[in-house]
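Weekly modeling sync, notes
Attendees: AB, CL, MP (scribe)

Item 1: holo prediction request
CL wants a bound-state model with 5CA before deciding which constructs to order. AB pointed out that an apo prediction alone won't tell us much about the pocket. Agreed to run with the ligand included and paste results into these notes for async review.

Input as submitted:
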Amino acid sequence: MHAWPASEVPALTGQGRDLRIHDTATGGLVTLDPGPVARIYVCGITPYDATHMGHAATYNAFDLVQRVWLDTKRQVHYVQNVTDVDDPLLERAVRDGIDWVGLAEKETALFREDMTALRMLPPKQYIGAVEAIPGIVPLVERLRDAGAAYELEGDVYFSVESDPNFGQVSHLDAAAMRLLSAERGGDPDRPGKKNPLDPMLWMAAREGEPSWDGGSLGRGRPGWHIECVAIALEYLGMGFDVQGGGSDLVFPHHEMGASHAQALTGEFPMAKAYVHAGMVALDGEKMSKSKGNLVFVSALRRDGVDPAAIRLALLAHHYRDNWEWTDQVLADAVERLGRWRAAVSRPDGPSADALVEELREALTNDLDAPAALAAVDRWAVLQSERGGTDEGAPGVVSRAVDALLGVAL
Ligand code: 5CA
Ligand code: ZN
């Protein structure tokens, strides 16, 4: 699939710093030391009800990761998927009496538009589950042939017991895993499974549902976790730097993914850091497609809200916090954008050298975007109250805010 156009990232003077970021698997901060090409896989949308503020907040976090790396003069190899065939997508298409392919295409197109408007850097490979099927089938066959997978009434399941490291991403106990598995696409109560937690790798064709040739697996469609593993391993290879997503992907999705990869390669972990963004809520509940309590990026854009203000609203929250979207959050962001734009509209101002270092320090400290915004706020106050004689300082601020925060002033 094609991704979306890249906005330019200005190069900043001085030295970028290495990223320290929270890794769910080890439970602490890790300092990442990627090679000249940093590798990141971010789980993409299931294309219906896109793009809501929760999605946008999560992709914003991983956009910051890339901007920090780019500031160190590294290249970034970014891969993202689109889960363009899965139960919830098919169920939505049936509910609305529309074609599932058309639904996925329309929602993916809207997502691209929203990402472009928000200045999110595009992935180098943007890969749909459907187009990944030829790569998924041989992996499932290998898992089966190695004894890490088994068949149940034509479906193929992964055996979690085949992985000695199972549990090392989420560190949850069996009861919590079972609950989350039932909530998030698993089928712990299906009779005949070796372990209730075992996830499906390949689902045999069902009447009235789409299916593809699966070689020795028979016709069917891929499971969710193997989709991301196949795409990540094909384009990034084992041991990439970051796997990212919202905290609702910790279990089962990223746990199972790590397990699949371990069974396939004998290596753990698949990603050096498992990074998870907090959940955005509306009216006290997690913003989710199933509840329908959604605020869409495209609806705000249609109402004339500047995408830079939407981005500032996201950046006002630490990516690991759970937070609530309110009208006030947006109003504050609109007001801040106005203040910043006024501050950079003059040819001179207070020196910006310290500010650039403060932005670097804030972002490399577990992506502390609120601290970065506070630093720009302080410079803008100085500018409006006292001004300054440093020629070009507003331009330096403008480029730094663009390069490191993705906000065009
Ligand atoms: N296609 C899978 C990942 S492979 C999926 O989870 N799709 S999704 O459309 O449901 O979510 C896309 C991303 O947005 C995921 O990283 C998910 O964790 C994140 N996300 C979903 N809801 C929220 C929310 N309310 N707040 C923050 N992030 C969210
Ligand atoms: Zn995924």
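Recorded for review: The pocket of zinc ion (ligand 2) is lined by residues 43, 81, 228, 253 (CB under 6 Å).
Action items: CL to compare against the apo run; MP to circulate these notes.
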